[in-house]
Request: fold
Amino acid sequence: MRADTFDATIQQFQQRVPYRPFTIVLVNGTQFEVDFPTAITVRDGTGVYVRPGGIPVIFDHEGVNQIFGDLKPEDAG
Reply:
């Protein structure tokens, strides 16, 4: 994923109203659900997610395999 696409995609998920959790899957198989919008920050293709308990996950645009949100009936259209 390109760095600018990475930043824009995560920011779009962060700014959904109402906020809904989304999941990031890394190429190594690690995945995490971003359950709170300010628990993640991105800049120039690098992201930091702070898991519950204050555990940071640092990742970059090259390490992301997939980003997806929960599909609720109203999202399916």
